[in-house]
């Protein structure tokens, strides 16, 4: 049954307070919830009370302290109904028995390496007790938890600690109270034998906050970076958004078994340990950046998510899109802004564009869902963040800040909607945002076609811009979007040209505002034909089609004042060649690279005045999946791979001198620091090494093998290993063996070892992946291991997942069927790899469809997997 936004209605009852008594035990944990109810205005006296449950086992039920008569209620695994509640306030006391040890779905209360922990977003609290488990029911929680003192010396829950003591029998207890009303999805508790790093943060108004990062024993030495990122996040939110922390403690717990990245439970964030643990031996620069971003993201939710939450799950982007925007801004301030922007746009294009262009497309704010966990998507998160960024571009920084201030002031304590949010900005900017709001309602990536004309006699320069929003499932017809086009007219000297005036579309400073399907913008007094630099900084999540010549693009690549568009021009050029190359390879021909492009690339990459991180990004040509998406249909991944390889070999060959110079300039004795500057230098050196290796020259491979052995940090080690394995170098197997010999006991490093092998574009990879499922370090019970091996095979190895014989599809389908029984959320995520199946050439398309049908035929089939497979096949 689908849930619909249009059907929203508040609950009949409210829950002002909840008292939980949780008795943790190896076998049979007992949860006693005393839930206070009040009848909402408009609810008739005696109206039945229906509570959500999921796989629950009710032990006892009492109303206002007296056991309930059997005919006064009904209880099943997924529902509790109190038939005739009192008219006035009343309290239900419900005891449920849970078995966290067998909870393989990792939703509700479960165990991870012996630690009891919870995950309640989106609908996990109903797996702990019967409840009104929806985000618009806000309650004040008091939690008493009790456990064996040896098994769980650490007892944590939301809010502030109020009491702790002995409970007899080797047991102890702790009581936590969270003064801030919250929805059930923000509830959390953790109990276990954990080590902690403590620190302190003093807020802008002088509140002393005790900070703790809890990890398994032996890992405390790896939490320093996360703690530092947390303190920087707390300070930044005060400075950038005026947001202060509001409890006496803030705790972070890292667990090894976690379905997603992390969770913003009030005052007790629970993390996938991949986003907490780091030292140079096991973490790459990308891991450090990920930790910084996710620590910040979860912390920022304290205001955008917790103090102001969502009215219903359709409003998920209200907290997620906004919080991603905030964490992106934080990382931009901590690191290089243009480099962060390029990285974010690459992620958007590789994750969100294919979603928006395929069978799973949905609006940033969906209007219907069958399983909400399937809507924690790149569209809700990343496109949601782009929409906020466009809003800021349109109304300007100052109005944006006023709108945010108003939002915090007006909606603190509310469960709000996108309409509430936008109203604050409409008021702050004194602007009608109704048309802009279409970004929340219409799915699909718009295309903007641009034509230009320079009239030398009239000294006018004319741009004609046409937007099309493609049809998506359930949305055949679309209205035009409000699209901010940040632009510059680049003159022959490389600087932006002046103009004497502009007419046509509305232009605000350096932003053209498109509102109609077609606009003509005329710039007056333009001395010569400029090269247009459009969508600077990727000012809108669209596909521009400007049709610039190779020489214009090479010019922008060299001279554009906007770093993003320098990179974009290079990417566009590379994409043109990659697409042509894929067509050529399909016909049995040879892909060719444009020498002028490669030479321009060489100049930029060799320019020591430029940020190494930026130069490294320039060297990274669009990936195979990007090329397949550009091709659109009849895709043969082998032809795409051939084209991709050919371009990289051409770059590696022609740029050998400059790439070798970069490698030679590396200072192997330089101390490691996980900062942006160091990461940028490593990225450049490793990109150079990888391109040289792509040529297959023995000397380049030898040098890589030496770099692998000598590496003093995981970034360089993994980069060298990946290049060797993916190039099928003779040194690859020895390097893999050395790696697992040294890091076999470190799960997060094992993930890298699994992923390197799973993503190798080699005919034997599938057999190896299948064999690795039996490796002692692998387990289908652990989401990180499963994603590292099977997830990366399915999403990052286009030629082997989409093997012509269908064996790659079949393998992944078998894994999905197997995981469907133990962890449907992870199963559904892996299944998403099939979403572009219709764009394959006919033979692969048929094989993919057969695999999908085999998944669809499984019984029983979880709602998570059924929802994705049905939409994928529709
Ligand atoms: N709110 C979390 C975050 O954005 C994600 C939790 C999603 N969990 C889930 N089971 N769908 O960091
Ligand atoms: Zn989030």
TrEMBL record:
Protein name per Swiss-Prot or TrEMBL: Aminopeptidase N
> What PANTHER family would the database entry show?
PUROMYCIN-SENSITIVE AMINOPEPTIDASE (PTHR46322:SF1)
Which EC class is this protein assigned?
hydrolase
Q: Which UniProt keywords apply?
A: Aminopeptidase, Hydrolase, Metal-binding, Metalloprotease, Protease, Zinc
Q: Where is the Peptidase M1 alanyl aminopeptidase Ig-like fold domain?
A: 444-543
Q: Which GO terms describe its molecular function?
A: alanyl aminopeptidase activity; metallopeptidase activity; zinc ion binding
Residue ranges constituting the Peptidase M1 membrane alanine aminopeptidase domain according to the UniProt record: 225-438
Lineage, top-rank taxon, reads: Bacteria
What the record says about family reads: Belongs to the peptidase M1 family.
Q: Which reaction does it catalyse?
A: Release of an N-terminal amino acid, Xaa-|-Yaa- from a peptide, amide or arylamide. Xaa is preferably Ala, but may be most amino acids including Pro (slow action). When a terminal hydrophobic residue is followed by a prolyl residue, the two may be released as an intact Xaa-Pro dipeptide
Any idea of its EC number? 3.4.11.2
Tell me its cofactors.
Zn(2+)
Q: Which residues form the Aminopeptidase N-like N-terminal domain?
A: 91-186
One GO biological-process annotation of the entry reads: proteolysis
Supply the InterPro entries for this chain: Aminopeptidase_N-like_N (IPR045357), Aminopeptidase_N-like_N_sf (IPR042097), PepN_Ig-like_sf (IPR038438), Peptidase_M1 (IPR001930), Peptidase_M1_dom (IPR014782), Peptidase_M1_pepN (IPR012779), Peptidase_M1_pepN_C (IPR024601), Peptidase_M1_pepN_C_sf (IPR037144)
